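Q: You know discrete backbone vocabularies at least as well as I do. I have my own habits and do not want them to colour yours. No explanation is needed for now; the record alone will do.
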Amino acid sequence: MRMAAEENPDKTIVLVVDDEATILRSASAALAGIGLRVIVAENGHAGWEAFTKFQDEICLVLADIVMPVMNGLELAERIREMRPEMKLLLMSGYSDKALEIEGRLNFAFIRKPFLPADLHSTH
């Protein structure tokens, strides 16, 4: 992710979308620690609204797969339709079997819980 901010200095915001406050706090702290600004949203609908408002400054969207209102897959698909080049990283604490049922994981993925170092190394 550090590369994304360096490639385009104007794109320094990561949008973190999760319905768990602890994940929002820990991901925000990890990303701020490497010099990125963070916008948080508590569900997919709020994430979509934030994305449409700040899309020109966002370098990465980090979204939980299982959320109320709009899940992370729906959010990622909407974003990809609008901005196919946007970097998307989906996350989940559910088992692989549950994720297979959820389907369509043609996006980068990280398993929760994760360490801040895991975010630094994921592209």
In short: The radius of gyration is 13 Å.
